[in-house]
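Entry 14. Structure prediction run on the chain below.
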Amino acid sequence: MPGLEVLYTYAAGSISCPQDAVVCFVHWEIINSGYKCLGSGDEPRSGDKKSELLPADWSSSKELYTLRYQSLDDKTRLLVKAITVDNTLIFNALDPGSDQVSDLTVTISDHVDADHLQTYDSVFKDAAALTEKVQTQLLPSAPAPKAQPASRKAERKSRRDTEEEHQDRHPLRVGPSQPLGARQPHWADPMAPFASGRADLDPFGGGGGGMIVDPLRAGFPRPGFDPSGGLPGVLPPGAVPPGARFDPFGPAGRNRPGPDPDHMPPPGYDDMFM
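Output returned:
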């Protein structure tokens, strides 16, 4: 970590136990996060000044460490305390301005080699994990920026869009809110071949085409009138389902096939001239 070696070498005379090394490491992480150290102790002193270094008496007590910090923009202060409990150091950081509190527990032996306290290259173990713990658990996160209020014009537009979306999703509305002439039905293609008998095979499928063969659904092209196309001034497009049995208004095309007199004769009827 850039700068930590210089700091550790400077403070080596005050480092006499593993917890001293941990406090030195955490101190440098706080400095790298945009703070400067003001001094030790709970209360400000007349000679306080911002510094990246540790104060002269920072390790006078091996049971309790107390350090004060201030951000580079002077907007945030931190009171950091570290308490030694067996093989752990419990850090506590307090922002007096907002009363925001954060804490971190460090197992000393996981990150410091007690046999190499005076050798910087060998003293720290798993430094990356300790850095992550300090950044995510001890240092308070910056407050989220407040959302800017929307203008009245934007609010009206948002409200209008919401109302239109609600109308289009109304359970009793068929399709989107469009003019009737421009609306296209979503019925299945009635000209699909072999459609007859489909409803008998799958009565719950919702499709048409039972045992009664509809000549308009037999798979052959239909000459002449298409009722789903609409009649100008009479019926708009989409008013009649495609393939519906529908008697059009007036002449709707040439060569229209007439009715078949032999279509569906009554039972026992075998002579059309009787």
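The CA atoms of residues 56 and 233 lie 98 Å apart.
Filed with the rest of this week's runs.
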